[in-house]
Design a protein that fits this description.
Elements lengths: L6 H23 L17 H7 L2 H23 L4
Helix pairs in contact: 1-3
Amino acid sequence: MDIFNSLFGVRIAFILGMLNLLLFMIILLTCRCLPTSRIGKNWLQNTAYKSFYKYHCHLWWIFGTSVLVHAVFAIGAFGIPF
């Protein structure tokens, strides 16, 4: 299709790639294991972190959708590299 071979398709793939990196870091910071580690042992006492932590499951759905759409645009624009 023309959308994949256009500059728009490449830009969408790039933007979604950056969004994937950002969402990965956010999901990592809201991981259930992090507040119990030495790094974040008192994070669950913080109300700002608790209000952010409750969106962890929703972030996975956004991340999964973003990865899927990113993969479709990247394969459509560049093909399968083998």
